[in-house]
Amino acid sequence: MFNFEGQVILITGAGSGIGRAHALYFSKLGASVIAHDKGTERVDETIQSVRDNGGRAFPLVCDATESDSFRTKIRDVGARLGGIDVLVNNVGIPADGPLEAITQDEFDTAFRVNVCSCLVATQAVVPRMKERRQGKIINTSSNWGLVGQENSSLYSATKAAILGFTKSWARELAPWNVNVNCVAPGGIKTALLQTSDVRLQAIPLKRHGEPIEVSYLVAFLASDKSDFMTGAVIGLNGGEQIVGC
């Protein structure tokens, strides 16, 4: 159904979990994948997994909170590969705790990683997308960004900010045929899930999602099958949160 031969796809936070699943899936669909993460070892593991399956992958090791370096490295690797066709803003960290316990440092770190990195990566790829008059940007929010969650207001706030970026950028970039959409996963089987309070009894489908199931949705949004879709926020949570998006 999807063919990404000849396309270059940047996935932030691709060193583990959902990001690694994205890298493996897109490479199987023919894409050249740029795998970003903060740690060299995690990136190398993802790159090796892609190459072991016959795919093409290129490393981008950088702390996403170091905005100038992050932006420069994205532009450099994109230029070497002929431009970035699809950006998947996936990098993120948990930020749990009661509201009275949130410190300024925790606030700053959560927004730098979860929100500012999304802005910086998008700023880095948009000029070339405008030149080509095409491109796909897929942001990653959360069901908690849609409805909130007690004892996780900071994380929820960062993920709600991604919704505002998505809808505003979709309008701003539409004249250049650049589509911006957002996935909002619920409980997905990753290390991040272990820090949350997602209970199976609250999920109508009675299971957590698999990382690859998020990748299926992201691939659709990155493909030409979604060319008339922009500004959409799509929940993927087994029915845990059913809201109008």
List keywords for this structure.
43% helix, 7 helices, alpha/beta, single chain, 7-stranded parallel sheet, 245 residues
Describe the structure in your own words:
It is a single chain. This protein is α/β, with parallel strands linked by helices and 245 residues long. It is built from seven helices and seven strands; from the N terminus they run E-H-E-H-E-H-E-H-E-H-H-E-H-E. It has a seven-stranded parallel sheet, sandwiched between helices. The mean pLDDT is 94.
Brief characterization of the structure:
This protein has 245 residues and is α/β, with parallel strands linked by helices. The protein has helices at 17-28, 40-52, 67-80, 104-132, 143-147, 153-173, 211-222, and strands at residues 8-11, 32-37, 56-61, 86-89, 135-140, 178-185, 233-236. The model has no long low-confidence stretch (mean pLDDT 94).
Please write out the topology.
Blueprint: E1 8-11, H1 17-28, E2 32-37, H2 40-52, E3 56-61, H3 67-80, E4 86-89, H4 104-132, E5 135-140, H5 143-147, H6 153-173, E6 178-185, H7 211-222, E7 233-236
Parallel strand pairs: 1-2, 1-4, 2-3, 4-5, 5-6, 6-7
Class based on secondary structure composition and strand pairing? alpha/beta
Largest sheet: 7 strands, parallel
Number of strands: 7
Gross morphology is: globular
Helix and strand pattern: EHEHEHEHEHHEHE
Strand content: 15-25%
Helix content: 40-55%
Poorly predicted runs are none
Number of helices: 7
What spatial order of strands do you see in the largest sheet?
3-2-1-4-5-6-7
Q: Any idea what the radius of gyration is? A: 17 Å
Q: Kindly state the mean pLDDT as a whole number?
A: 94
- How is the quaternary structure best described? single chain
**N-to-C CA distance:** 26 Å
